[in-house]
Amino acid sequence: MVASLAGCCRCLLPTLLQRFQLRHFPTPLPLQYSYISHQLPYRRRPSIFFAAMSSDQTSNLDDAFKQKRLLRSKVRKSLKSMDPSLRSQEDEAIQNIVMEAPWFKSSRRMCAYISCSALREVDTSKLLAHILQTPSSSGDSSVAKKLYVPRVEDKNSNMRMFLISSMDDLIANSMDILEPAAVDRNGNPREDVMESDEPVDLFILPGLAFDKSGRRLGRGGGYYDTFLRKYQLRAKEKNWTQPLLVALTYSVQIMEEGAISMTDQDVPVDALVSPSGVIPITAAALERFELSPSAVK
Fold this sequence. Notes:
By secondary structure, the protein is α/β, with parallel strands linked by helices. The chain contains 7 helices and 12 strands.
């Protein structure tokens, strides 16, 4: 009887295994895919891990944005209460420091913001006029500078930088902020810095607040951070030297190191120029500036 039962099991076993395999396991993959198949259960696990990390990151981002909102409110109040005569003095001092600096004089291609008094930004009118008149005033075309200025494209943090040859190339947008038209007076498209075959040497940047580690607090739109990331990527792809990022700041806008929260989307600056002088931050700034100890503030 035992022999009969064993024989019966031997007959039924292949059928049972076949049915069990068909119902519960997929057909085995060819050998060349076995490693990938084996890794599938493992590859699903990171999504759980990243989901947990994403929750932590979201919390950190919320804290950073809250801190930024509070700091923006504080700095806006300080700027609003700033004495007009002091503001004028600081505007003059900052622009003179930049124009007299060797690192500025040696720069040939620059991107700079057009200051808006309503936003209480450091004035750049004298600086931009100086850049645009450099060839005619010196009479030497070899020192001619190219100036690109920003134009906001939409409400999704997209901005472009166009070449201008005169302040007359600027028109007021819907926010009453001066910016270049997309075409020149002859109807020709303006040169876009992202399409230029030559690298930018220097960016002159605005901001609402800065700390001494180079962190920059903008106004919340993300336009400059988005543009700078794109340009830095282009410079890397072209194997160009990265441009120097220099921000202009009133005294009341400078915070202690680490006072400004930083996210992955924020681009730090290389140096600050305040009424007291230049504050180099990165090694690139120190190298480009070639500052004497007395010039560093």
